[in-house]
Structure formats: C-alpha cells, structure tokens
Amino acid sequence: MPSVDPDFRDGAKNAIRQFEKDGEQLKYMMLTPLGELSQGDILSSVPFSFFDDDGTQKIFVSDAMVISTSCHIDNKDKLTLAPVLPIDKFTGPISELKSNCIFDYMYIPDGVMSDKFVSFELINSYSKALIFEGLNSNKIQRIGSLNQLGYYFFVVKLTVFFMKLEDNETLTARGVGFNF
Q: Is-contact 66 154, C-beta < 8 A?
C-alpha cells in the first residue's frame, strides 16, 4: 500500500475533464457567500509567505481559498489557505491552466474567479483567531463560496494534487518492490 491506486488516481484526473466535457460554461460559485466560513471560500487580502532560492522569505498579499475542512474550521486552532492569484501572473500555457490540465492549480471560470487561479503550491497555515479577527474587523472580506458543483470540483482537484504517485526510482529507493 505505497500510494493511491493508479486506477483511482487516473479516475480522479478523468473526473476533472468531465466538468468541462461539453465546453459548456458551468457555474461553480454562489451568488453570495455561505453563512459561515467554509472550505473553498474565497477571502480577500491575505498575506502569504514562501522562501526564495537563496533562503530569503518573500511575502505577498493576495486573495485566498480556504483549504481547511469545515470541521477543522470549527475545531482546530489553525487554518490552511491557498493563494488566489491574478491569471496574468501565470507564466505557463494559459489554455492548459484554463482547461485545468495542470493539477497544481485550479481555474474557476465564473464570477469573481474568472480572471484568477488557485495555487496549491503555496499553501500556508494561519491562526484561526487571526483570520477571524481580520474578518470581524473587515480587514479581510469573504468574497465568495463554492456552490455544490464547485465544491465537488475543488475536492477532485485537491485530491489529484495531493495523491501524485512517487516516481519508480524514489519508490525503489524506499524499498518498495512494486513496479508501476
């Protein structure tokens, strides 16, 4: 049991393609945010940090998507958020981003998200108290919530992102005798 079954993984990847199968513009966002902060919600003005090649910490502010599950929002002291970046900052092929073929990112083609994308590569954790303080003081705004279809799409994208199979060399080095 070294990883997720490749058939399941490939099925999840195929599920992503099914969301846009007919070329129809699907709606993933609700017209107004849900009553409570929830997984998949979009927030404004959240600082993110990462470390550059030379070890320098870089900080930027962007919109954010809540990655934490609703039960973690209720019961844990930390929340995980992913940055929501302007699409004009994307350096790869825009057509692949918009067709959601690149599994490190999620593009939602409607509402407040049509000119943005979510980057799962830059997930940060935050004190729940700090985020709620920002929401209560209006320093952070709740911009939107995913509808049911958007939520399912988000779960599939996140699942594919986190369940990538290690390459054969790494599996062999770990002592796994399977050949995929």
A: no
Indicate the pTM of the whole model.
0.82
Rg, the chain, Cα only: 18
Tally Cβ neighbours within 10 Å of residue 72.
16
C-beta of residue 170 within 8 angstroms of C-beta of residue 161: no
Give residue 26's pLDDT.
Answer: 77
Q: What is the 3-state secondary structure (H, E, C) of the chain?
A: CCCCCHHHHHHHHHHHHHCCCCCCCCCCECCCCCCCCCCCCEEEEEEEEEECCCCCEEEEEEEEEECCCHHHHHHCCEEEEEEEEEHHHCCCCHHHHHCCCCCCEECCCCHHHCCEEEEHHHCEEEEHHHHHHHHHCCCCCEEECECHHHHHHHHHHHHHHHCCCCCHHHHHHCCCCCCC
Cα dist. 101→8, 51, 95, 130, 160 in Å? 17, 26, 9, 34, 11
Confidence (pLDDT) at 24: 65
- Assigned token pair, 17: 């393609």
What would the pLDDT profile of 75-121 be if each residue is shown by its tens digit? 999 999 999 999 999 999 999 999 888 889 999 988 889 999 999 99
